Amino acid sequence: MLNAVPDNSVAEVSYRQIREDIVFGRLPPSHKLRLENLKSSYAISVSTLREVLNRLVSEGLVVAEGQRGFEVAPMSAADLKEIAGLRLLLESHALEQSFERADVEWEAQLVSAHYKLARMEEHMARGDNSKVEDWKRYDWEFHQALISACGSRLLMETHATVFDKYLRYQMVALSYRGEVAEREHRQLLDAALRRDSGTAKDVLQLHIQGGVDHALAKGQL
After folding, report:
1. DSSP string, 14-82
2. What is the pTM of this model?
3. Could you read off the pLDDT of 70-96 as tens digits, one per residue?
């Protein structure tokens, strides 16, 4: 999860750094994770690296190659479709629960998250890709805000893990869809403020499927 609970241990800090580098595509799919190189890059011991990489293996972001070491998990169209389907299932259920329990504090959080996302989308619309990571962070925050009142920490954590896997595809294979994505985010906000979970789920389905279709049309998978 991009906003994990703070933990300043060496292993936890290294885990968050390497995980973020994978999610944001700085360590690309199928990249060989050579321990000596990583040891230098992240200033940690080989034993700590093995601990971190095995943790990422359990999350599906790294693949263990037996005696040959580790590599960043590859990408495929089939995997993207599966991740997108799981994200839709979790987020649809969570937002319905969230709308039922939401209050004015939740509304304020959601409006704030949308404002930040909309500002970044303005940059993207102008062709400014210098803030692409901020754009995706705010996208993550907005969708997390939508479901933040669901009442289930486990659901929130599971959704965040799946969303990060989807985010990795967005950084590597998906790209900005322009006004269509902006409009869908506004529609999600409007439906949320009306507590209209039916409309929100319909828009969410279009939003996620649109991202998948966009990626497949580009042929990068």
Report:
1. HHHHHHHHHHTTSS-TT-EE-HHHHHHHHT--HHHHHHHHHHHHHTTSEEE-GGG-EEEPP--HHHHHH
2. 0.86
3. 999 999 999 999 999 999 999 999 999
Residues making up the chain, counted from first to last: 221
Q: Does an H or E element contain 111, and which?
A: helix 104-125
For residue range 101-131, list pLDDT tens digits in order: 999 999 999 999 999 999 999 988 888 878 8
Edge to edge, the sheet with strand 70-72 lists: 32-33, 70-72, 62-64
Phi, psi of 63 (to 5 degrees): -115, 130
Domains and CATH numbers, the chain: 10-72 (1.10.10.10), 77-218 (1.20.120.530)
Other C-beta atoms lying within 10 Å of the C-beta of residue 19? 21
Alpha-carbon dihedral of residues 90, 91, 95, 97, nearest 10 degrees?
10
